[in-house]
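Q: Two folds, back to back.
A: First:
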Amino acid sequence: MKKIQLAPKLLGLGLVALAAYSFFNRPKKMTFSGSSMVPEAEGSIRIKRDKNKNHTIEIEIAHLVPADQLTPPKEIYVVWMTTQDGETKNIGQLRIFTGFFSKAYIGSLFTVTSSKPSSFFITAEDKGDVTSPGEVILRT
């Protein structure tokens, strides 16, 4: 009678499945480049699908000038998303803070959306609940 050892085969298949899942489920990354209004600003966006098939969006922008120091001065930065359907959505405001060991300003935002994003841009606005974007500061 021949004994079949399933444990090593199952372990191997499990590792292959885990590697494939990790490869196809890794976060997609986009980058922002500086503009004439905030030339030193640079940042990135990580987009990942969660178990509910929503898109989690994590944004971090370094070397950002506070909005009230722009010309003309503004109150806040608003992040906009363009969906694959061509719709433009206000997805939130950047939270601005200084680094722990640095005086450089950093902007961040974490949000979740059911829409599939295709691009992002940031505007400086006088209020956060705007429904149409003003002048674009940064874009992907």
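A: Second:
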Amino acid sequence: MELSALSNVDLINAFKVPEISSSLDDTSTGSVKRNGAFEAVFNSAANMISDANDYSNAAEVEEMKYSMGETESIHDLQIAQQKANISLQYVVAVRDSFMSGYRELMNLQF
């Protein structure tokens, strides 16, 4: 390591304590800033619920086709039902994890 590379380092500003500011509100304009991380998680959860609903609807359509004799493929029916079941189980598992984390946050004492 060359010592000449260290000559350009600003040691006074390198060890400054960062200022803590809230990113939730901007007092000069009164507007609220958006949190991209929460929005991404929320959109992901909404998409997951929508996908689970789509799988459930597809399973119902396959059930109707099979019961009306439009198709004789019980394999397609079972696959659609299994997809709907697995997606619902996944949604419930994510919800349970979210609720567990929420309970942990509510039990914190400051």
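Q: And?
A: The first helix runs from residue 11 to 14.
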